[in-house]
């Protein structure tokens, strides 16, 4: 092949490889633009809440979206005094629920994934059915059962419901994760004389930390955002969670927009901070809990 022919071939090859790269680059620009637009739209309510939290009613009437000065930081002090007890209630209930959900779901998922016993498939099918059951379908029976047990207006009525709900999802995630762990690890441990408890403590627990963190984050998010169940079973103000407390705070401050928005902002900060610093572990746990991702 002559030098001229080889040069033409190289030129054709380079042109054919550059064009797809340009097309892919244009597609990436379009996707990035769409993602940025969606993020901005999603952040608009939070931005509105931040701007409004420092306004008086007069400033709010003069400019709906504009940032106006002076910025009234005293609105945050007013909001904190109102919602602080509700925040601590939610934190306590979230911690208690997470502490109970993690060991229950971890041990149950490990046993279902690594041991063969009669009824194993039936138990797994029942767990999947519970996962598909809409929460509203069990609301009235659950309320009647808690009322008959005399658990209304207690923290226990919330923790029991969150644990029962969270264990189902936790078992599914842990079981799928445990099935992805190579069997050779457990075989080697068994040869060394390890029993089921030793394999769970030495192999399963260290490897399942990301998915356990995911379950913990999902539990905290569920407790924090749940509104209807606490509103139904709690009538005493001192027991209310932050979502219900904000609703009553709104009723008390219907004409004070600034403290109201400051309260919403303070109530959302713990979840924002939690997901900001632990989002990497959250995504790793979700991917690790799905079948075929290990």
TrEMBL record:
GO CC term (a single one): plasma membrane
Originating species: Microbacterium saperdae
Family of this protein: Belongs to the binding-protein-dependent transport system permease family.
Ranges where the ABC transmembrane type-1 domain occurs: 87-278
PROSITE patterns: ABC_TM1 (PS50928)
Membrane topology value: Multi-pass membrane protein
Top-level division of the source organism's lineage: Bacteria
Major localization listed first in the record, in broad terms: membrane
UniProt KW Cell cycle keyword: no
Protein name (record): Carbohydrate ABC transporter membrane protein 2 (CUT1 family)
GO terms, biological process: transmembrane transport
UniProt keyword Lyase present: no
Transmembrane intervals: 29-48, 91-115, 122-143, 155-178, 199-224, 261-283
Compartments, as annotated in UniProt: Cell membrane
SUPFAM superfamilies attached to this UniProt entry: MetI-like (SSF161098)
Keywords tagged on the record: Cell membrane, Membrane, Transmembrane, Transmembrane helix, Transport
């Amino acid at each position: 092949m002559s030098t001229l022919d080889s040069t033409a071939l190289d030129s054709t090859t380079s042109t054919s490889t550059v064009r797809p790269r340009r097309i892919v680059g244009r597609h990436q620009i379009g996707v990035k633009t769409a993602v940025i637009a969606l993020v901005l739209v999603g952040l608009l309510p939070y931005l509105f809440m931040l701007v409004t939290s420092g306004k008086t009613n007069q400033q709010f009437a003069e400019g709906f979206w504009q940032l106006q000065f002076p910025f009234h930081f005293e609105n945050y002090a007013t909001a904190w005094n109102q919602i602080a007890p509700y925040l601590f209630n939610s934190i306590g209930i979230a911690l208690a629920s997470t502490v109970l959900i993690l060991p229950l779901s971890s041990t149950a998922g490990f046993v279902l994934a690594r041991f063969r016993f009669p009824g194993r498939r039936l138990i797994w099918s029942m767990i999947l059915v519970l996962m598909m059951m809409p929460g509203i379908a069990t609301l009235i029976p659950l309320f009647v059962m808690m009322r008959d047990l005399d658990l209304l207006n207690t923290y226990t009525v919330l923790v029991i419901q969150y644990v029962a709900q969270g264990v189902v999802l936790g078992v599914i995630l842990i079981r799928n994760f445990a099935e992805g762990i190579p069997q050779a690890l457990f075989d080697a441990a068994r040869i060394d004389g390890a029993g089921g408890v030793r394999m769970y403590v030495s192999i399963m627990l260290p490897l399942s930390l990301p998915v356990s963190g995911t379950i913990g984050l999902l539990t905290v998010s569920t407790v924090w955002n749940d509104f209807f169940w606490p509103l139904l079973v709690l009538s005493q103000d001192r027991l209310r969670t932050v979502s219900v407390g904000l609703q009553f705070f709104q009723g008390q401050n219907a004409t004070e927009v600034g403290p109201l928005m400051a309260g919403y902002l303070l109530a959302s900060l713990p979840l924002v901070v939690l997901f900001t610093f632990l989002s990497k572990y959250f995504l790793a746990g979700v991917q690790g809990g799905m079948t075929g991702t290990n």
